C-alpha cells in the first residue's frame, strides 16, 4: 500500500522564523504534537514537536528555527511501512510526504491508529479479499497461495494454502495483528505479500506469452 493512500493535506505547518508561541497555537489548532517546518518557498526544512518546543522555552529559545530538528520524510509512492517504521521508532506523530522538494501531505499516527481500530473486529478473510479484488489478473486461489507463502516465511510456519484459508476464515484483523507481533510487522507482511503477488502476476503473464 502506498503512503499517499493514507495521507492527509490538513496538518500543522510553521516557518523557521515563527515564534514558539505561534508554533504552540498551530499544534493546538490541529490537536497534533508534531508540526512541519517549511521555508518561504514552502519547502521542507525540518520538523518540530511539542517536546522540542517545551525544551526550547525552558532554555530561553524564542523561534522555531532554534529548536526544530532535521526533517524526516518519505515519497508519496513509498510503502506505508516506511511511515510506520519512522512513527514507531521516534517521538514524531506525523511523517511528511515530499515530492519535488515540497510537502504534499502527511501520514499521521492518529490516522494509522484510527484505521487499525476500525478494522480490529473485521474478519481477516474479508480484508484479504478486498486486497485481492484490487489486483487485476490474480485469482483468489493464487492470492491465497502467495499469502500463505509469505505467512510461512515470516512466522516460520508450514501451512498449506487450504489450512491458511481455514485459519483466516474465523479470525479477525485484531487476531492477525497480535499474531504478527504488532503494527509494523503486519505492514511489513502486507508489503511483502504485495511483492509476492506482483511476482506471480508477472510470471503468469510470461507463461501466457510463451504459450502464444
Explain what this protein looks like in three dimensions.
By secondary structure, the protein is of the alpha+beta class. The protein has ten helices and five strands, in the order βαββαααββαααααα. The strands form two sheets. A three-stranded mixed β-sheet has the order 1-2-3. The radius of gyration is 21 Å and the shape is elongated.
Short characterization:
The chain is α+β, with helices and mostly antiparallel strands.
Fold topology:
Elements lengths: L12 E2 L5 H11 L3 E5 L5 E6 H10 L4 H4 L12 H9 L5 E6 L2 E7 H11 L4 H10 L6 H16 L5 H9 L3 H7 L3 H28 L2
Parallel strand pairs: 1-2
Antiparallel strand pairs: 2-3, 4-5
Helix pairs in contact: 1-2, 4-10, 7-8, 7-10
Which outline best applies? Answer: elongated
Overall pLDDT metric? 87
Element order: H for helix, E for strand = EHEEHHHEEHHHHHH
Proportion of residues in β-strands: 5-15%
Kindly state the percentage of residues in helix.
40-55%
Query: What's the N-to-C terminus distance?
Result: 33 Å
Which structural class do the helices and strands define?
alpha+beta
Main β-sheet: number of strands, strand sense, barrel status?
Answer: 3 strands, mixed
Number-wise, the strands total 5
Radius of gyration: 21 Å
Report the total helices. 10
Uncertain regions: pLDDT < 50 for 5+ in a row?
Answer: none
- The largest beta-sheet arranges its strands as 1-2-3
